[in-house]
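User: ok so my PI wants both of these folded by tonight, can you help

Assistant: No problem, let's get them done. Here's the first:
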Amino acid sequence: MSPREQDASPLTRVTILGSTGSVGQSALDVVRHYPERFEVVALGAQSNVERLAEQVREFCPSHVALADPAAAERFAGLGLPAECWSGPESLERLAALPVDAVLCAVVGAAGLKPVLSAVDAGNRLALANKESLVMAGPLIMERARARGVAVLPVDSEHNAIFQCLRGHDPGD
């Protein structure tokens, strides 16, 4: 039985990668409006210590990651209760935590490894990172199918395409 199946919590447990950017902040607005539906397990960012600290104070995640090691050192000095990981691979570690969904809103090529990590861990993936699909779309989707992982587009452009194609054979 997976950790998600063992947890009888009615809350959807989420990890948000890119939480200090516009998409990540929008996702946290949803959590803020529906606290009875979501639990923020982990937050990841590149280097925005101040905004991440505000988010940790409000949403109380157990884990955070800052890809920039100097920023992670500054964050650790704040004495907040979340466990802080640092370095580029820290976002991959967050993506592999057992949660119900991972939102990847990391900009550019930096999002690819966390996306693969989330899929390999069996976490449902909400994807706002176009670059990952451009660089490795077939690989991501092959791994997702093999593990029974849903990949849901979040960004407006690829969500529109997803909605148009839903229910149609991709060969059509």
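One down. Here's the second:
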Amino acid sequence: MTKHLVLALSLVLTPAIGFAMPSVGDVIGTNPEDATAALATAGCTVDEFEAEDGQIEAKCHDEASKRYEVYIDPASGAVTKIKSED
């Protein structure tokens, strides 16, 4: 019984672990295709990219429609800042 409960919980909780926003310092890519794929894997759907103050700004939203601005260093592809728009 306990074995089945542990297995069921691990199957239910595993997808939630895969959908965490990127952190500052994570390298997600220097081009739109790589950054879009990395952000989608992290659970953030990209709506658009903009250039802002020498950074690439990715405007995206999660499954709960919470909006974020993810700033990316264009040389390294590393996330430099994440802002919640809500």
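The longest strand covers residues 45-52. The domain at 20-84 is CATH 3.10.450 (Nuclear Transport Factor 2; Chain: A,). Good luck tonight!
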